[in-house]
């Protein structure tokens, strides 16, 4: 388990992020058309998994906007913005903001799926008022499916280190 905070109050996650150098765990998540997507669907691409609690919060929205801007500059990179929000909420936000350079994926049915993204990536919050949602984290995966960078943001109200994630792609 990882310990994080929400406005200074301690929370726990289901585990820890995948180890650097390890094969990225497979997952099953829903896209905006309610289709199931897995890691294999992005085979051969460099991936940034931008993981967050809810698109309807300021920091989460900022991370989606920022990765959207940065992704447009990097060939062969796909940013996956992942939360437990309904696919409709993620799509609504991106449409309203004109966001086109990221893919949004929903883990809202995650506890009922195998493999479980929240469990296998160690980001499902298991205590506190946001229990069941995903923590704020970034995982970068190279084109060969290996984890090359991870960040579990220690305080949910903080933004991730965008520069470190983008540097791992180069």
From TrEMBL:
Record flagged with keyword Oxidoreductase: yes
Active site: 60
Disulfide bridge map: 60-94
Domain (Thioredoxin) ranges: 18-170
Keyword vocabulary terms for this entry: Antioxidant, Disulfide bond, Oxidoreductase, Peroxidase, Redox-active center
Family: Belongs to the peroxiredoxin family. Tpx subfamily.
Listed name of the protein: Thiol peroxidase
